[in-house]
Write a structure and sequence with these properties.
Blueprint: H1 2-24, E1 44-50, E2 55-58, E3 66-67, H2 73-83, H3 88-99, H4 103-112, H5 116-124, E4 139-140, H6 142-155, H7 160-166, E5 188-195, E6 203-209, E7 212-218, H8 222-233, H9 259-266
Antiparallel strand pairs: 1-2, 1-7, 3-4, 5-6, 6-7
Length: 269
């Protein structure tokens, strides 16, 4: 029996491990699919990307050029951080653009770096993005915003732009509350918002999470933006766990003790 027990001791551990894996393995939660965004109203453009897999889904309006509002401040801030003169004042203005959506800071930097939006669009392949007569009349798409944020998360995760999104103030410089839209999705760590001067004709929100980025733009008020975002993505796991590894069924070997019998044999005596 000692020899037989040694054999069982060597084989029981992997067998038990496989059995436990079979019992505990659970199917991965599904990521968003194109069907999840098929019913997004035409008033709203919505884009999402899962970073580990590169899965991208967008609504019918995802590539349409819409008023960029203050989301284009993300492009401006990235240019200032990487290609500006590095002065503390410029960096402070860039931070204020993102954290409190300071329009005055944006105008100052736009005057100093009028090429910022166009240069960023060219670098990141933002084909629906263009600068107007000044930053406030620029256009972009939610697909472009997601493309930009996904690139930053993958290639420049320590970017101050992302850090400023993660530390956005609850209230903007002009008094607008910053807690709506994509910010309401589970797993979001940081956001940037935009709105027209009347705060109701067009708004935008873009957010980052550990494993995903998402952007939206709505012809309507912030409450409508929130409703459309949550209606499409609110009930979906945006950061899906890795798929469970498939474990083959244990072969039936005549004369081999069951797992329960092996555990009894290995139990302390």
């Amino acid at each position: 029996m000692p020899a037989l027990r040694r054999i069982f001791t060597r084989t029981a551990v992997p067998i038990v491990g496989i059995a436990m894996a079979l019992v505990c393995a659970a199917p991965a939660q599904a990521l968003p699919t194109p069907g999840d965004l098929s019913d997004v109203p035409a008033r709203t453009s919505l884009s999402y990307e899962h970073l580990p897999t590169g899965t991208y889904v967008g609504s019918a309006e995802d590539n349409s050029a819409r008023p960029g509002l203050s989301t284009v401040k993300l492009y401006m801030a990235d240019y200032v951080v990487r290609f500006g003169d590095g002065s503390p004042r410029d960096l402070d203005l860039a931070a204020r653009m993102i954290q409190v959506s300071d329009d005055g800071a944006a105008s100052t930097l736009d005057n100093k770096y009028p090429q910022a939006i166009s240069a960023t669009a060219a670098e990141y392949g933002l084909t629906s993005t263009s600068r107007g007569g000044f930053w406030g009349s620029s256009s972009t798409s939610t697909a472009d915003t997601v493309r930009f944020l996904a690139a930053k998360k993958r290639t420049d995760p320590a970017s101050p732009v992302l850090a400023w999104m993660n530390t956005a103030a609850p209230v903007a410089r002009d008094g607008m509350v910053q807690d709506w839209g994509t910010q309401q999705l589970a797993g979001v760590t940081g956001s940037k918002w935009g709105w027209a001067d009347d705060r109701s004709s067009v708004v935008a929100s873009a957010s980052i999470g550990d494993d995903f980025v998402v952007a939206s733009n709505t012809y309507g008020p912030s409450s409508t933006n929130t409703d459309d975002v949550l209606g499409a993505l609110g009930g979906i796991e945006l950061t899906a766990p890795p798929a469970a590894v498939s474990v083959p069924n244990l072969p039936v070997i005549p004369g081999l003790p069951s797992v329960e019998e092996l555990l009894q044999m290995l139990a302390p005596r």
